[in-house]
Amino acid sequence: MTEHSPLQATRCGVLLVNLGTPDAPTPAALRRYLGEFLADPRVVEVPRWLWWLVLNGVILRIRPRRSARAYARVWTDEGSPLLSYSRALQHALQKTLNEGRAGPQVELAMRYGNPSIPATVARMLASGVERLLVLPLYPQYSATTTGSVYDGVAHYFARTRNLPEVQVIRGYHTEPGYLDALAESVRAHWQTTARSELLIFSFHGIPQRYAKAGDPYPEECADTARAVAERLDLDDTQWRLCFQSRFGREPWLQPYLDVTLEALAREGLRSVTVICPGFAADCLETLEEIDMENRERFLVGGGESFHYIPALNATPAHVAALRGLIERHLAVWNAAPDS
What we know:
Strand content: 15-25%
Number of domains: 2
CATH topology of the largest domain: Rossmann fold
Strand order of the largest sheet: 2-1-3-4
Radius of gyration: 21 Å
CATH architecture of the largest domain: 3-Layer(aba) Sandwich
C-alpha cells in the first residue's frame, strides 16, 4: 500500500487576512471602503441607529475626500501599498510552504474591500480545499481586528451548505520567530543608520472603553514591545510604547504617539526611531501617518533626526516566522487520520 500524507489526501488551504484597502485613492473608492469598514460593529461599538445617522450623514460626506488625499501620497504603480506588500508575503509563503513537496494553497483576502473574504474562500473551496487555516495578519489580538475576521469568515459559512474544517490563529504576539524578526529589523537599521536616543514601539490604538470591557490588546502590545526590547538589551530609558491612529473624541489607548513626539521634541530629545510591530505590512498608517505626518511633527517641534523602521513585509525572517506558525497549526491535521 502506498503511504501518503493526510495533507495531500485532504486538501489544505491557508487564508491570510489583512485589514483592507480602497480600490483607488479617490473619494468614491474611499466612500465605499470606509462605508464597509466603519459600519462593522466590532470597529465602532455605538448603537446602530445612532451610528448609521452619524456615518452616513456626516463622516461619509467629509472623510472620503480627506482620506483620498492621504492615500494618494503613498499610492504606487502597483496600487495600494498594503495590498502589494501583502501579496508579496502571500507569494513568499506559498513558495516556501511548497519547497520539495505539495504544500497548502495560500490565498490572501481583505476584511474590508478587495479581494474579499467571501470571494476568496469561495474560490478556495471550489479548488478542492477541505481544511482551511485562517491567519489574520494581526500579531496582537483585538476584537476590532482578529475578532472581526472571525465574524467575516463565519458570516460567509453561515450561507454555505458543505463546510470545511476550520482553524483560526488567534494571534502570535509572543511567537519567538516573530519577535526575533522584529529585533533583527531593528539591528539591521542600526547597522546602516546612526542609533537614535529613543526607540518607540507604536501600535494602532483602540478606544479605552474597549480595553476596559475586556479586550486584551493593550497587554499583548506591551508584551511584544517588552520582549523585543529585551532581545535588543534596551533598558527602560531607551524605549517607549505608544499608540497611534485615534479617531473621534473619546479617549483611546495612551500615551498617544503624536502628543509624545511633540513633548519629546520640546524636552530636547534630538533623535527618535519608530517601529510599528502591529502592522505585518506597510500601509497608510505607517507610510503616511508615521513616516510623513509624525516625522514632520517631530522635526518641526525641534527634533533633528526621525527614522521609521519598515514593517516586516515579505522579509525572509518574517516569512520564516509565519511559516513556522502555519506548519505548527497544520500539524494538528497532519497527525490526524484522514477522514
